[in-house]
Amino acid sequence: MSLPALSRRRFASFLGASLGAALVPPRVAHARRPAGVPDDAILLNSNENPYGPSPAARAAMSRAHEREAARYPDANEREVVEEIARHHGVSPEQVVLGCGSGEILRIADMAFLGPGRTLVVAEPTFEAVLLYARVTKAEGVKVPLTADHRHDLGAMAAACDARTGLVYVCNPNNPTGTIVSGAELRSFLDRVPRSAVVLVDEAYHHFVEDTGYRSATEWLARTPNLVVARTFSKIHGLAGMRLGYSLSSVEIARALREHLFWNNTNASVLAAALASIGDTAHVEQQRRSLNATRAELCAALRRDGRAFVPSHANFVLIEVGGDVQPLIEAFRARGILVGRKFPSLPHWLRVSIGTPEETRAFLSALRELVPARAVA
Ligand code: PMP
Prior knowledge:
By secondary structure, this protein is of the alpha/beta class.
């Protein structure tokens, strides 16, 4: 994948941009364009990383493309599983690779739900797990977030009964960007009956800086009914390449694997994963850069007197004072794609963090389309 030429204007704003940004390549060109969306549209709709994969991951993908495209990737999968296991201090038998973490959510539904079973989730949250559950004929039990848009773990634990096959905790939560703390998660894991599997989705884990936050991976050893899902789509900038994974007990991993498609990954993304997973310097630099842009956006929203949910992820949910759907379309007409409407939060707009330049373009459009006084 080659980088687009850097325009003088973009280069200047790129150099002058927030902390750490001078080390970051410019945003990557996007081949995928919904119909009618111009090539230079700003994509702030899917919580992707606008800077794309690291230089090492790009080089590894090119090499794999050249040398390994003709062969089934069994050995590459084994190598990545072993590297992920080493990275997290677990055994390779506890790791399952998915075609994105979306596949992990899907196979968790397949393995632990079915007719007569329930899936307990927050409302709103990332809805894929609910959609896949429908196929199994399980019943979704939606537990509203608290008034400050956080998981109501007490109510979620209370919603679990003998029929519950799966409980989904998205931490940080999409679309709110809120987190549950390590202490909250730990006591929740103790309260959920062992007959239900707890799936903690940590797609946005790397963006969190709050010291009270903990990855659920800390409790894997003592929680046999826990699955943690991770992805290479967000901080690692590989959404188009498709790789995620789960960590769990060996028994749960075995149950998940039964629902996998054989060779569900590919040699290129596996090579990129090997180059990315241990690259803590790159991850840290991406986190600082994207979080600095998020801080810049939030400061401007605050100055404008707008309500928004303080976010721990690479997106922000902003109150817009009315139905968000026409606003989504008005942004689109200006060449800016923003997040979809979440039916239980119809007056809120989710915007992904882009480059500083993209994020400023979003802010100017927001100021035009929803003057600050309309929501203050
Ligand atoms: N979990 C969450 C919370 C997400 O927001 C997304 C995608 N936006 C996914 C999982 C799936 O991502 P992927 O399949 O690319 O890993």
